[in-house]
Amino acid sequence: MGRVPNVTRADAVAFVRNPLAFIAERWTPTPRTVRRAALAALVMAVVIVVTGGAVRLTGSGLGCPTWPKCTDDSLTTTSAMGFHGVIEFGNRMLTYVLCAAVGWAIIAARSQKPWRQGLTRLGWAQFWIVMSNAVLGGIVVLVGLNPYTVAAHFLLSTALIAVAAVMWQRTREGDAAPRPLVGKPVRQMVWILVAVTVLLIAVGTVVTGAGPHAGDSSEVERIPLNWENVTKLHAVLAWIVVTLTFALWFVLKAVDAPKGPLDRTRDLFLILLGQGVIGYAQYFTDLPEVLVGLHMFGSCVVWIGVLRVLLSLRERPEAMADLPAAATESTLTRA
């Protein structure tokens, strides 16, 4: 092992003033490390959604009846609170794991050479979404699992997944201006697919808010809509998404699109088929908790799949940092 360098007072002061800059001066991660950090943040964004669903489906939404403490007298769960308290408090603790993953992504992006400020901003955007959603999660508990706040909580998590997915993609690209790989009509078609998917996810939160899984064994307010009618609307939107995806694949084949958009569209179509099977299975089997949980996980995977299709429509090569030198050489050659 090499000798551990002494930490001077100046080092300590520099770290306190700007810890990210201090680390960046002394550590240069490999591109692979940065990609892994971004992927870890994306995975944890999905995990926190799935575990939040587990809280709801086990009726543990008020396992810790207050916030930010678990009870008025205890920061953590107590034995008297039983299984539901453990589930709810465990989900709260996973927020810290998510923060650590996002923090690692921020540090890795800030320390990469050359520094890619856009990548770092995407990391910080995730941080502030996590903080906002933590506060909103506390409000959800304090208002007794009001379905509208629960829906907002899930939608903010969906926004987190979107930013994390974009950051993960950007770690595998350069910083040059994006170049479209397909024509404008195809890009517009994909934006319609994205919009319908957002609507599908939003209506899905209404299905949850009006449905039987209230999140707690006590009397919890529900959205005053016919649950089955909203579910049918959700299914119609799902079929529209499937149809658009299928049509998009044929259009990409017709215009001889590059392999990337074709593969991402194929992957999305297969994901949608699996999600559809789970959706219909849970509907016809009276919403068993396991299938509902799988459907929530599938919702995250579908959203990531749609975003990957969108991001595959362009390429961003490495920025030509040596352009001035090349231009000078060209000028000398002409002279």
Radius of gyration: 24 Å
Which strand-content bin applies to the residues? under 5%
Q: Uncertain segments of ≥5 residues (pLDDT<50)?
A: 321-335
Number of helices: 11
Order of helices and strands: HHHHHHEHHHHEH
* Average pLDDT metric: 89
How many strand segments?
Answer: 2
Q: What does the overall shape look like? A: flat
Secondary structure: helix percent: over 70%
Major β-sheet annotation:
2 strands, antiparallel
Structural class: mainly alpha
What distance separates the N and C termini? 55 Å
Spatial sequence of strands, sheet with the most strands: 1-2
Structural notes for this entry:
This protein is an all-alpha fold and about 325 residues long. Helices cover about 70% and strands about 0% of the residues. It is built from eleven helices and two strands. It has helices at about 10-15, 20-25, 30-55, 80-110, 115-140, 145-170, 185-210, 225-255, 260-285, 290-310, 325-335, and strands at about 180, 315. Strands 1-2 form a two-stranded antiparallel sheet. Helix 4 (about 80-110) runs antiparallel to helix 5 (about 115-140), helix 6 (about 145-170) packs antiparallel against helix 7 (about 185-210) and helix 8 packs antiparallel against helix 9.
